C-alpha cells in the first residue's frame, strides 16, 4: 500500500490531480485489507476537493463498511448516496444483498431485491450467487407472493 500512496503523492507533486477512479482504486485496496478508516478519510478528501463522487466510489465504501461489520454506517452511506441523487447500480445492490444474507437478514435482502426491481435494475446470477439454496427459495417465494 505504501507504493500506491507514494504514487498518489508523486502525482500531486507533479501537478496531476488524482481523479475519482484513482481515489476509488486506492479506497478499494484499503478496504480489501480490512482497513476502513483510511478509505473514509480518502472519501472525505474527495468530497472536500470538489470531485463528483460516483456510484463506484460509494459502492467501494459500502463494501468496506460491510466487510468490517459496520452495517449502520453502510446503511447511512446508502441513504447519503440516494440523497445525493446517485442511484445504486447492480453492483451496489449485490453488495447489499450479499451482506444482508451473510448476516442472516433475509427480510432486508428480500426488501433490497424488491427495491432493485422497482428501480428497473434486473438481478443477475451474481445477485444470488453467494446465497444458499434455502435463502434463494426464501427470497424468490416472498417476491412471488408479494407480486400476486
TrEMBL record:
Keywords: Repeat. InterPro entries: PPR_rpt, TPR-like_helical_dom_sf. It holds the Pfam family PPR_1. PPR repeats lie at residues 19-53, 54-88, 89-123. NCBIfam families: PPR. This is Pentatricopeptide repeat-containing protein. It comes from Lithospermum erythrorhizon (Purple gromwell).
Amino acid at each position: 500500500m505504501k507504493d500506491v500512496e507514494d504514487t498518489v503523492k508523486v502525482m500531486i507533486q507533479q501537478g496531476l490531480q488524482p481523479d475519482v477512479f484513482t481515489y476509488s482504486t486506492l479506497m478499494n485496496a484499503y478496504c480489501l485489507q480490512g482497513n476502513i478508516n483510511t478509505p473514509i478519510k480518502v472519501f472525505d478528501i474527495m468530497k472536500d476537493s470538489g470531485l463528483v463522487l460516483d456510484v463506484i466510489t460509494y459502492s467501494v465504501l459500502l463494501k468496506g463498511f460491510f466487510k468490517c461489520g459496520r452495517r449502520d454506517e453502510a446503511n447511512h452511506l446508502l441513504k447519503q448516496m440516494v440523497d445525493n441523487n446517485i442511484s445504486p447500480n447492480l453492483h451496489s445492490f449485490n453488495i447489499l444483498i450479499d451482506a444482508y444474507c451473510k448476516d442472516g437478514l433475509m427480510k432486508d435482502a428480500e426488501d433490497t431485491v424488491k427495491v432493485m426491481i422497482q428501480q428497473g435494475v434486473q438481478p443477475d446470477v451474481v445477485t444470488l450467487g453467494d446465497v444458499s439454496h434455502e435463502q434463494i427459495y426464501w427470497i424468490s417465494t416472498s417476491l412471488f407472493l408479494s407480486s400476486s
